[in-house]
Specification:
The chain is an alpha/beta fold. Helix content is 47%, strand content 14%. The protein has 19 helices and 18 strands. The chain is elongated, with a radius of gyration of 27 Å. The protein binds one RNA strand through helix 6, helix 12, helix 14 and helix 15.
RNA sequence: GGCGUGGUAGCUCAGUCGGUUAGAGCGAACGACUCAUAAUCGUUAGGUCGGUGGUUCAAGUCCACCUCACGCCA
């Protein structure tokens, strides 16, 4: 039994996320967490909302709410949706928590003591009307290159020329539209990542078993151009963790906050503190401090590829640079993007399915199965309604759902709703047990390796094995000449249901529960021995025929959804 | 423009350290069965492995160049 710490990338607070965000981090993390728990490991699975930064402030202003209140509301919404998808977080925290404030300030202090913080004075655009400094992309004006009138301060969307905000003709604030802009000096803290380049490099080089996607992105940032750059970790904002050097004020940094990318990963640790403070756990340090037992912990992170640089470089730089015995990540599972029907998901264009909409259409298990069995592991993947309908109907309704249906109904009509007791197992039964034993071992190996799609494939094959057995043995035929033999066949097939339930639970937890309940079977835990598990429902055991596990998606539904979520075309 | 990741049967994807006839699921065709959500099971389907050139006894699998897609950066 190992102790497993699992974190999923933190979803940003400003609105409901689309399906790509789900499959890129939280869902596979949940799959892994559920699997490891089922196998008897001790698991701490943490996630949180990432709440700081300019976009949160702007979204709050747009909603007409104080930012703290806005974040509190959106956090509740996201927590509700996460629960709707069955995400089994041990704690779903908030990067704005008091715990994270303290911890972020502590790390900054430790890094400063280690000589890894530099104070840099910069010139930045300040909007008098908005009373704030403006990030480059919140400044618009006329492009000096092509004359496009809505060029952003960092780049012109029309001619793609890279710009500096001061290049723009008639610059204005995109927040207020004000042209009353001026350049002011401001001081910021920089994390001297460049000093840690060699340490990070050798650390990454040792991770040969990590997905190439993970290591290639990290190596690129380490070696591209001038190598790893120092990074500003503070901003001129109101909403965030106030800059302090541990418990002490930081002279010259009054009124500033830490940059969201500095405090967000630290929330992984703070979330464990929140977990304890919420009364759900007792010892967060044993998960995070190597001097308090975390050396025994295996820590796995899940994230989309856009988050990889921060998890392979910035956050490790924070951890290593602190000089304190914090736990470093052991394995980073990263994912590519999920596209929507030939393009990207787009919030502004209303393209694609968002998480709350998805749950209003179909139960979570449908989404979990499709998303996980099509997880973008090796390259970007694509969601189409046609593919979704075909996969879900075939895999869930036809292969798994119908298996449960056909055998329970057949038993009911011939033997009643009780596991029949006559007959004995023969060579065909032994062969099925041997086959399943092998397949379960392969399934476990894929799950251990977090090979999500391959795990789904193997699980599907396990379901199909039940249908193959029934088809070959044909108890409906056997029954006519040798009812005892048919009874034994039915007994074995019925026993497959609780086995399937336990094996499938990480993917489709709701259906798994329904299957166990219908069979009147307790969750007997992971099958250590397939043969033993298949004796779980003894002769005479009563069961009920469950409702249809998965209703099929009709062509009408698919067509309706296709048009509903198409959004406005480009 | 530089870098990264991909481009394998109609579709979605596997292919470990290069090695006999390139695999799976779906779809399709045909057949079997009729217990079941018209579900299931079996068989078949012959894709110049994006293109060109090269290394090698041998390349989808290594190298170079080209091309397309996506992403990152400048």
């Amino acid at each position: 039994m190992t102790r497993h710490l699992i974190t999923s990338a933190l979803p940003y607070i400003n609105g409901i996320k689309h399906l790509g965000n789900l499959v890129g981090s939280q869902l596979p993390a949940d799959l892994f967490a559920r699997y490891l728990r089922a196998r008897g490991h001790e698991v701490l699975f943490l996630c949180a909302t990432d709440e700081h930064g300019t976009p949160a402030e702007l979204a709050a202003a747009k909603a007409g709410l104080p930012v703290a209140e806005y974040c509190a509301q959106l956090h509740e919404q996201q927590a509700e949706i996460a629960a709707g998808f069955g995400l089994s977080f041990d704690h779903f925290g908030r990067s704005s928590s008091a715990q994270n404030h303290r911890l972020t300030q502590h790390f900054a202090g430790a890094l400063a003591d280690a000589g890894l913080i530099e104070e840099v004075t910069q010139r930045q655009v300040y909007s008098v009307a908005d009373a704030r400094f403006l990030p480059d992309r919140y400044i618009e004006g006329t492009c000096p290159n092509c004359g496009y009138d809505s060029a952003r301060g960092d780049q012109c969307d029309n001619c793609t020329k890279q710009l500096d905000p001061t290049d723009l003709i008639e610059p204005r604030s995109t927040i207020s539209g004000s042209t009353e802009l001026e350049t002011r000096e401001t001081k910021h803290l920089f994390l001297r990542q460049s000093r840690m380049k060699d340490d990070l490099d050798s650390w990454i080089r040792g991770k040969e078993d990590w997905p190439v996607l993970t290591t290639s992105i990290a190596k690129k940032w380490l070696h591209d151009g001038d190598g790893l750059q120092d990074r500003g970790i503070t901003r001129d904002l109101d909403w965030g963790v106030p800059v302090r050097k541990g418990d002490a004020p930081w002279p010259g940094m009054e009124g500033k906050v830490f940059y969201v990318w500095f405090d967000a990963p630290i929330e992984y640790i703070a979330a464990a503190q929140e977990w304890v403070d919420a009364g759900k756990g007792s010892d967060w340090e044993s998960w995070w401090r190597t001097d308090r037992g975390a050396d025994d912990v295996r820590y796995t992170q899940f994230m989309g590829k856009d988050n990889v640089p921060f998890h392979t470089l910035s956050f490790p730089a924070t951890i290593m640079g602190s000089g304190e015995p914090w736990k470093l990540v052991d394995y980073i599972k990263s994912f590519n993007y999920l596209n929507y029907d030939g393009g990207q998901f787009s919030t502004s264009r209303g393209r694609g399915v968002f998480q709350d909409q998805a749950l209003s259409l179909l139960p979570a298990d449908y989404w979990r199965w499709w998303l996980l069995s099509h997880a973008p592991e090796t390259s970007d993947a694509e969601f189409t309604w046609e593919n979704f309908q075909a996969s879900v109907n075939k895999d869930l309704a036809d292969v798994l759902g119908n298996f449960v249906s056909r055998i329970t109904k057949f038993c009911r009509s011939k033997f009643g709703e009780t596991v029949p007791e006559a007959g004995a197992y023969g060579p065909a039964e032994e062969a099925l047990i041997a086959d399943l034993t092998e397949r379960v071992a392969r399934y476990e190996a894929q799950m251990d390796a977090i090979e999500v799609r391959k795990s789904a494939q193997e699980l599907r094959a396990i379901w199909a094995a039940g249908n193959e057995y029934l088809q070959a043995q044909a108890p409906w035929t056997t029954f006519k000449t040798d009812p005892d033999r048919a009874a034994a066949q039915v007994r074995l097939a019925l026993n497959l249901i609780p086995l399937y339930a336990v094996l499938s639970a990480p993917f489709v937890p709701e259906a798994a529960r329904t299957m166990l309940e219908a069979m009147g079977a307790p969750d007997a835990g992971w099958p250590g021995n397939v043969k033993t598990t298949l004796g779980q429902l003894p002769p005479g055991h009563a069961f009920t025929v469950p409702e249809v596990l998965f209703a099929k998606i009709t062509d009408e539904q698919r067509e309706d959804w296709e048009t509903r979520f198409a959004g406005t075309r480009d």
